[in-house]
Design goal:
Elements: E1 17-21, H1 28-39, E2 43-45, H2 46-56, H3 61-70, H4 73-90, E3 96-99, H5 103-107, E4 113-118, H6 121-127, H7 135-153, E5 165-168, H8 174-186
Parallel strand pairs: 1-3, 1-4, 2-3, 4-5
């Protein structure tokens, strides 16, 4: 997998299973689309799966969020599907990207690289102003989700200590953020890896 020119890896040779997480407006979708193109691999978005569930039930996102707040059935069904995907690609020895707020936790030790993106509230609000949800609704949903995940799985979404890369995307353009991550991927050498932070499997 090594590139003899400079000792870094060719992107075409990369076979890392990457997770990308972050709140709405942090740039996760933009990054996943660009990263999947750069690595020539597929990716699955938890947000898209959530929207599919809403469409299947003929509900708006706000309505589905309200239903999910009343029962853990929707969240756990989504998380089980994400874990099945993580189990498949975690052992596939091929490049793949999994994106969701809990992707790093769900993939756990199966992931080769766990990324968390964030940005200041005002930046995220500006980026999401054309979406179906209003900024206030988005912020309420984030708080509700954090409380639910803590209740379900005893995890703290504000704890980013186990992520390999944590990036404030308000400081760089989307192209700059991509370049930071590609540089980390190119320079990653498994034989020199002294260990990622270990996580326990979630009881989904």
């Amino acid at each position: 997998m090594a590139d003899t020119e400079g000792g870094s890896h060719r992107l075409s040779d990369v076979n890392l299973f990457v997770t990308v997480s972050g709140p709405p407006g942090s740039g996760v979708t933009t990054l996943c689309e660009a990263l999947s193109t750069a690595l020539d691999c597929g990716y699955v978005s938890g947000g898209e799966l959530f929207r599919e569930i809403a469409d299947d039930r003929d509900l708006t996102l706000t309505q589905l969020v309200a239903e999910a707040s009343e029962s853990d059935e929707i969240d756990r069904a989504l998380d089980r599907r994400l874990r099945t995907i993580a189990e498949k690609w975690g052992s596939a020895n091929k490049a793949f990207i999994l994106e969701s707020r809990l992707a790093g936790w769900i993939a756990g030790n199966r992931a080769d690289l766990r990324i968390w993106l964030d940005a200041p509230d005002e930046v995220r609000a500006e980026r999401t102003r054309d979406r179906e949800e209003m900024t206030a609704e988005m912020q309420v949903r984030e708080v509700i989700e954090e409380l639910r995940y803590e209740s379900y799985y005893d995890i703290d979404l504000s704890d980013h200590s186990f992520y390999d890369l944590v990036i404030n995307t308000g400081r760089w353009t989307s192209a700059g953020t991509l370049e930071i991550i590609l540089s980390a991927i190119k320079e990653y050498e498994p034989t020199l890896d002294e260990g990622a932070f270990r996580t326990s499997d979630l009881d989904i």
